[in-house]
Amino acid sequence: MGREISAPSLFQLGYYWEAKIFLTSVKLDLYTPMGSGPKTAAEIASAVGADPENLERLLDSLVAIGLIHREGIRYANTPVVAEFLVKTSPFYMGELMLLQDEEWEAWGKLEEVVRTGKPPVKGNIFMNRPEVGEKILRVLDRMAKRVAPSLAERIDLSGYKTFLDVGGGAGTFSMAFCKRYPHLQGTLFDLPETLATTQKNIDKEKMTGRIRLVGGNFNLDELPGTFDVVFLSDILHYQTSEENAALFRKLSRAANPGGLIIVKDMFLNEDASNPGWNAIFSIHMMVYSEKGRCFSGSEIRGWLEKAGFHWVTEMERNTVLTAIK
């Protein structure tokens, strides 16, 4: 079931107010000064270069939203904000919020896209704006560091020797699996312009001898050999059904008999009456990419089985599937 809707909530849904207040607060970097403890509006204004009176009104609106607390004349971060929006935090996600602020105009074209069925852009952010794509990779790397080690624990790769990460980006999952299984030899395949960022991360983690980097386009180029494990993370929602079906056929050719495929993405619920939050993310892909959308787990299962993978298992609801070649 979706959220319960009332007359007041209808009006709230129609306002952009909270979203713009939040995104502006990230752009002003209001949360970092409070990272060292509660601050007054004047102290925060001095730290970020803002008008104290207007900033106090903005801070009070953030209190009303629930992002921060007010203690007398001082303001303090909530735990979630402290973890994700203070620049000194290892899990800082502010760049992703800033990208959402840049999407303001793209979302303004939603009606046009729905009426015409024509995409508002060509390609996607990684192709069109590599400098922004690099920022996104950094954020995705931090996000993945929270989940990659636990995924590597839950999926047993002790019986496999070689690992291919297709479109592996920053290399976070490759490194997590290779750290968990010291005998595993990794290969990461992604666009050459992405691999510069990947190489920095692998060098930093001293994993150069464990993970080979190969440049190429997984839709156009053949994959570099055959492997015991093939891993695919957050690729499908950038592509069409036809492209994904063809990609799974290619991944099947790259998997050894008895090999394992791991598919991580954002799946729609199987129950069409309750598609889940990923249905909203699918709209984001509609306004910010040429052909992106979310798919249901059953659609992905169908591509896997037609490509020669079987024993499909949902490891994590609407997020991770595994199958055997």
TrEMBL record:
Domain O-methyltransferase dimerisation, chain residue ranges per copy: 15-86
- Protein origin, superkingdom: Bacteria
Q: Which PROSITE patterns match?
A: SAM_OMT_II
GO MF term set: O-methyltransferase activity; protein dimerization activity
| Methyltransferase recorded as keyword | yes
Tell me which UniProt keywords the record has, alphabetically: Methyltransferase, S-adenosyl-L-methionine, Transferase
Where is each O-methyltransferase C-terminal domain found? 130-309
Which residues constitute the catalytic centre?
A: H237
Check the record and name the InterPro entries matching this protein. Answer: COMT-like, COMT_C, COMT_dimerisation, SAM-dependent_MTases_sf, WH-like_DNA-bd_sf, WH_DNA-bd_sf
* CDD domains in the cross-refs: AdoMet_MTases
A biological-process GO annotation: methylation
Name of the protein described by the UniProt record: Methyltransferase domain-containing protein
Q: What is the lineage of its organism?
A: Bacteria, Pseudomonadati, Nitrospirota, Nitrospiria, Candidatus Troglogloeales
